[in-house]
Design goal:
Chain lengths: ~100, ~325
């Protein structure tokens, strides 16, 4: 916080939606998820997405561009909980020690 | 025009999320996923009024907020009262031409401590007055934010820091308060139980809750790896298991009268034994001792009895 006292919004309101993004939680991680695209249903046919749906930290990125799909993690925020790996129906995600 | 709910993956990926990353809920906490699914049901401008508890504290650590929609922090016991006021104020402001929005949805969110116990009076009052709002409880089975104290939602046999298991006690002895039934007895238009594993069921029910005129209540199960002493990767699996053992059956109640069991519960041939649910969690570890066999049998009998009663209410043989 670098604002002067008269720059702080009234009543301690936080006026920038989702500014928690400035706080990176990736450092909490002891294990990182690693994705193998071979059997992944999102890569194959654009379905499933259970890892994206269940991730509590919005750290799975399912990208679709010009009819081709890619998959990535946002390691700035992923806390390494392993929910994505546990819920993947095709065992496409493994947790590896940091 | 109301925005549609996002139930299929393609629609979910298109819809604006209401919670950002960078929040400080524990790794593997199910509550942010519960909020994410709530967001998938929204139909337009929405204000969230939230009682204190883990979700409130850890998503809004000053000067940050993970919320992307208007959100107000309230005290522990008055989320329903504040939401009542916000809902009425929005109506009056529109009538006076001071709000540009045709309609604003108002959602109150509280933990199980804030809802089953301390905020219960405010909740009951709001339901009786009939404000057009949705109240959602995320139920993690204890006052987790202050260090795992027992609440009205704590399960029999569950160890907390105010229901220790030891030589003479098997954790909490009392049963869980049947809150959804109590809320339904207020004869409000809509009550439903949901859990994050069954995400389509969750989003569809939440949308119905928004759409009915008058108060609606959503009871969401929300596993807590920190307090439950469970593996962080198991939170969503545990919410599925809670349905399968009957601890958190999925149903809807319309106008306090029409009971409808939802497919994930209806399709169960029979309940799985509670033992399977306990096995995943350190907070039930003491129950492995054969000295609690009688206690465990009583808890299982009670569960079976409650299940039969619920099936009867829902008109299922
Ligand atoms: C009147 C009052 N009493 C006590 C507290 C301290 N307090 C803050 S959060 C909390 C526990 C909340 O439990 P619950 O509603 O179950 O939410 P959880 O943290 O488990 O998600 C307590 C006791 C408070 N903020 N206000
Ligand atoms: S490990 Fe947890 S936080 Fe990381 S991407 Fe998977 S579900 Fe999300
Ligand atoms: S859960 Fe598994 S199969 Fe499904 S989209 Fe994610 S990685 Fe692919
Ligand atoms: S203590 Fe439990 S409910 Fe609170 S943030 Fe941690 S996992 Fe979530
Ligand atoms: Mg709680």
């Amino acid at each position: 916080m670098s604002e002067k006292f008269d720059e702080i919004p009234m009543a301690g309101n936080i006026i920038e939606p989702g500014n928690a993004m400035k706080y990176k939680t990736g450092g909490w991680r002891a294990q990182r998820p690693v994705h193998n695209p071979e059997n992944c249903l999102w890569i194959k046919n654009g379905t499933c997405g259970r890892c994206w749906i269940f991730c509590p930290d919005m750290s799975v990125r399912l990208v679709e561009k010009d009819n081709s799909r890619s998959y990535e993690y946002d390691y700035d925020y992923c806390k390494g909980c392993g929910i994505c790996a546990n819920e993947c129906p095709t065992d496409s995600i493994t947790m590896e020690s940091e | 025009m109301a925005e549609p709910a996002a139930v299929r993956l393609k629609d979910m990926l298109q819809k604006d999320q209401i919670l950002s990353a960078g929040h400080r809920m524990c790794a593997g906490c199910a509550a942010p996923t519960v909020v994410k699914l709530m967001g998938m049901a929204l139909r337009g401008p929405t204000i969230v009024c939230e009682a204190t508890g883990c979700l409130e504290v850890a998503t809004t650590i000053y000067p940050f907020t993970a919320w992307k929609i208007p959100w107000i922090h309230v005290a522990f016991e008055n989320a329903a009262a504040v939401a009542s006021g916000v809902a009425e104020a929005m109506t009056v402001m529109r009538e006076k031409g001071r709000s540009e929005y045709e309609h604003v949805d108002v959602i109150a969110v509280g933990g199980d401590g804030g809802t089953f116990d301390i905020g219960f009076g405010a909740l009951s009052g709001a339901l009786e007055r009939g404000h057009d709002m949705v109240y959602m409880v995320y139920d993690n089975g204890a006052y987790q934010n202050t260090g795992i104290q027992r609440s009205g939602a704590t399960l029999p046999g569950q160890e907390t820091t105010t229901s220790w298991a030891g030589k003479v006690e098997p954790g909490k002895r009392q049963r869980k308060k049947p809150l959804a039934e109590i809320v339904a007895a207020h004869k409000i238009p809509y009550v439903a139980t949901v859990d994050p594993y069954h995400y389509r069921d969750f989003v569809q029910k939440f949308r119905r809750a928004l759409e009915v005129e008058g108060p609606a209540f959503i009871h969401a199960y929300s596993p807590c790896p920190r307090g439950w002493r469970s593996d962080t990767s198991k939170s969503i699996e545990l919410s599925k298991l809670a349905v399968e053992v009957g601890i958190h059956p999925l149903f809807e109640v319309i106008d306090g009268e029409e009971w409808i069991m939802s497919s994930p519960s209806k399709n169960l041939k029979e309940l799985k034994p509670l033992e399977e649910y306990w096995a995943f969690q350190g907070q039930f570890r003491h129950l492995k001792d054969p000295k609690w066999d009688d206690f465990k049998n009583q808890v299982q009998d009670q569960m079976n009895h409650d299940w039969e009663l619920l099936k009867k209410r829902c008109g299922i043989e």
